[in-house]
C-alpha cells in the first residue's frame, strides 16, 4: 500500500518545482549597447551587440523575451560571416523609431532569419540586406520601415512562410532580381493595415506583393510598384480582400494593373484606384486619380503619401482604425479617408483685428451740484482684442479728464470732474454751455480710435 505521507510530500515537491519553472520562464529583457557586429560573445550589460542580444534570447528559457535596440547615430550592422541575424525563440525587438534605430544588412545575406517562432518587430528600419526578413514563423511588423533591400530570389523585402501582419509600416524601394513580390512574397496569410507598399519592383510576378495565400489590405496604399514581366500587377494573391485602401500606378511591361486575385477579388468598399481592378462596388471609386501628394514622414515615423486637396480618397472610407499610419486620430472630417493618411484640414486663419469701434453716448451731459458729469462709453461686443482702454476729456474752458478700461460688450459711465466754479458759470451763462468731448482709445491689439464730438453741459 502506498505511503500517504510520501505521496503528499511528492505532490508538494512537484508543485514547488512547477512554480519555480514558471517563475524562471518570465520574460527576459536584453538591451543592445553597441552598433557593430563583433565576434560573438556574451550579452553583457555594457557590452552587447544586436547579435549577442538575440543569441542570448534564443538560448533563454524565458517566454517572449524583449530585445531593446536604442536610438543610435549610426546603423546597427550585420557583418558576421553568417550575414544574418537568426531568431529561434519567441521575441519582441523594440527600436526607438524607424528613423532612430536602423539595422543595416551586409548585402550578402538576409538581415533577419526567423525560425518557427513568434516575432514582433517594432519601431526600426531594416535596409541594405540581401532580403530584409526570411520569416518561417509568425511575424508582426509595427511602425517598421523596410527599404532598400535586394534579393536574387523572391522578395527583397519580406519573404514569409508563416502568418504575416504589417501595421503602420512602410515597405518600399525593395527589389527581387529573379523572383516575385518585390516588397512582400508570402506562402501564408498576410494582413496589411495602415501601411504603405510603394516603389518596390520584381523581375517576375507582382511588383509590390505576391502571395500564394490570402492577402487582406485595409486602410493602406499600394502604389508605384513595378514588375518587369508583362501582365503582372501591384498586388497579386490567391485570395485578395481589400477595404478602404488606395491603389495607383502599379505597372508591368504591359501597362497599368493594380490588383489580381485567383479567387474572385473581395472588396469591402471604400477603395480608390486609378483602374477598375481593385473593386467596383457601390462605395468603391475605380478609374480615378487618387491625387496623392509627396512621399515623406508627414509628422509620423514611417513614410507615406499625403493627400492633395480634392482627392477622391477624402472621406471615402467605410470604416477605419482609430489612428492613421502616423498616429493621427481618425476621422478628421465627415468620414475617414481611404488609405493610411488622414487629411487634417488647416485651421481657419484668425480674422485680423485691424480696427476699434467704440461709441460715445448721445445727448446732453448733466452736471450735478458737485461739478461732476458722466460720459457714457461703450466697448462693442464685436471687439476682437478687448479691453477698450484710454482717456476721455473735456477740452476748453471746462477742462477735465479721466481714464477708462471697458470689457467687450460693456458700457461704462466715466465720471468727469469740472473745475471749481463751473456749476455757477453754467447757470449764469446758458449760451456758453457747449463743450468738446475728446475720447482717445486703444485695444489690446494696438488699434487706436479718436472720437471728437460737441456736447452741451446742463446743470441740475
Explained architecture:
- With 460 residues, this protein is mainly β.
- It has two domains: 29-273; 359-459, Immunoglobulin-like, CATH 2.60.40.
- Helix content is 8%, strand content 37%.
- It contains three helices and 43 strands.
- The strands form eight sheets. Strands 1-2-5-8-11-15-19-23-27-32 form a ten-stranded parallel sheet, covered by helices on one side. It has a nine-stranded parallel sheet with strand order 3-6-9-12-16-20-24-28-33, with no helix packed on it.
- The protein is elongated.
- The chain starts with a helix and ends with a strand.
Largest sheet: 10 strands, parallel
Q: What structural class do you assign from the helix and strand content?
A: mainly beta
Strand order, largest beta sheet: 1-2-5-8-11-15-19-23-27-32
Total beta strands: 43
Strand content: 35-45%
Provide the fold topology.
Layout lengths: L3 H21 L4 E3 L18 H10 L5 E5 L6 E2 L7 E3 L3 E5 L6 E3 L7 E3 L3 E5 L2 E3 L5 E3 L2 E5 L2 E3 L2 E2 L6 E3 L3 E4 L2 E3 L2 E2 L7 E3 L3 E4 L2 E3 L2 E2 L6 E3 L2 E5 L2 E3 L2 E2 L7 E3 L1 E5 L2 E3 L2 E2 L2 E2 L2 E3 L4 E2 L4 E2 L18 E5 L7 E4 L51 E2 L4 E3 L4 E8 L8 E8 L4 E7 L3 E8 L4 H7 L5 E9 L5 E12 L1
Parallel strand pairs: 1-2, 2-5, 3-6, 4-7, 5-8, 6-9, 7-10, 8-11, 9-12, 10-14, 11-15, 12-16, 13-17, 14-18, 15-19, 16-20, 17-21, 18-22, 19-23, 20-24, 21-25, 22-26, 23-27, 24-28, 26-31, 27-32, 28-33, 37-43
Antiparallel strand pairs: 29-30, 34-35, 36-38, 38-41, 39-40, 39-42, 42-43
Amino acid at each position: 500500500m502506498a505511503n500517504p505521507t510520501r505521496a503528499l510530500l511528492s505532490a508538494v515537491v512537484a508543485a514547488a518545482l512547477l512554480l519555480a519553472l514558471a517563475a524562471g520562464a518570465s520574460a527576459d529583457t536584453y538591451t543592445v549597447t553597441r552598433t557593430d557586429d563583433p565576434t560573438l560573445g556574451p550579452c553583457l550589460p555594457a557590452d552587447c551587440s544586436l547579435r549577442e542580444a538575440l543569441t542570448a534570447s534564443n538560448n533563454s528559457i524565458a517566454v517572449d523575451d524583449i530585445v531593446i535596440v536604442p536610438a543610435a547615430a549610426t546603423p546597427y550592422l550585420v557583418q558576421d560571416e553568417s550575414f544574418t541575424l537568426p531568431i529561434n525563440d519567441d521575441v519582441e525587438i523594440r527600436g526607438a523609431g524607424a528613423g532612430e534605430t536602423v539595422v543595416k544588412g551586409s548585402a550578402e545575406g538576409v538581415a533577419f532569419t526567423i525560425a518557427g517562432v513568434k516575432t514582433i518587430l517594432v519601431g526600426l528600419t531594416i535596409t541594405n540586406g540581401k532580403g530584409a526578413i526570411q520569416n518561417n514563423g509568425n511575424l508582426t511588423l509595427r511602425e517598421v520601415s523596410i527599404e532598400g533591400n535586394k534579393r536574387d530570389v523572391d522578395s527583397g523585402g519580406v519573404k514569409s512562410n508563416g502568418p504575416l501582419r504589417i501595421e503602420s509600416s512602410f515597405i518600399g524601394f525593395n527589389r527581387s532580381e529573379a523572383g516575385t513580390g518585390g516588397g512582400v512574397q508570402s506562402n501564408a496569410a498576410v494582413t496589411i493595415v495602415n501601411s504603405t507598399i510603394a516603389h518596390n519592383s520584381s523581375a517576375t510576378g507582382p511588383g509590390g506583393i505576391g502571395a500564394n495565400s490570402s492577402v487582406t489590405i485595409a486602410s493602406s496604399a499600394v502604389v508605384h510598384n513595378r514588375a518587369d514581366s508583362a501582365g503582372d500587377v501591384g498586388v497579386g494573391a490567391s485570395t485578395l480582400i481589400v477595404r478602404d485602401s488606395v491603389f495607383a500606378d502599379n505597372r508591368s511591361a504591359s501597362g497599368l494593373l493594380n490588383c489580381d486575385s485567383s479567387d474572385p477579388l473581395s472588396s469591402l468598399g471604400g477603395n480608390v484606384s486609378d483602374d477598375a481592378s481593385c473593386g467596383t462596388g457601390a462605395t468603391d471609386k475605380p478609374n480615378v486619380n487618387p491625387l496623392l501628394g509627396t512621399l515623406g514622414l508627414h509628422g509620423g515615423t514611417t513614410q507615406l503619401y499625403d493627400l492633395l486637396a480634392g482627392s477622391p480618397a477624402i472621406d471615402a472610407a467605410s470604416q477605419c482604425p482609430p489612428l492613421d499610419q502616423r498616429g493621427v486620430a481618425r476621422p478628421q472630417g465627415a468620414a475617414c479617408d481611404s488609405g493610411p493618411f488622414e487629411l487634417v484640414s488647416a485651421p481657419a486663419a484668425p480674422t485680423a483685428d485691424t480696427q476699434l469701434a467704440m461709441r460715445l453716448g448721445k445727448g446732453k451731459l448733466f452736471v450735478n451740484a458737485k461739478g461732476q458729469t458722466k460720459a457714457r462709453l461703450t466697448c462693442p461686443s464685436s471687439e476682437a482684442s478687448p479691453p477698450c482702454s484710454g482717456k476721455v476729456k473735456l477740452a476748453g474752458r471746462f477742462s477735465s479728464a479721466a481714464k477708462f478700461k471697458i470689457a467687450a460688450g460693456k458700457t461704462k459711465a466715466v465720471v468727469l470732474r469740472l473745475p471749481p466754479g463751473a456749476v455757477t458759470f453754467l447757470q449764469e451763462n446758458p449760451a456758453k454751455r457747449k463743450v468738446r468731448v475728446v475720447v482717445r482709445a486703444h485695444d489690446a491689439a494696438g488699434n487706436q480710435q479718436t472720437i471728437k464730438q460737441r456736447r452741451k453741459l446742463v446743470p441740475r
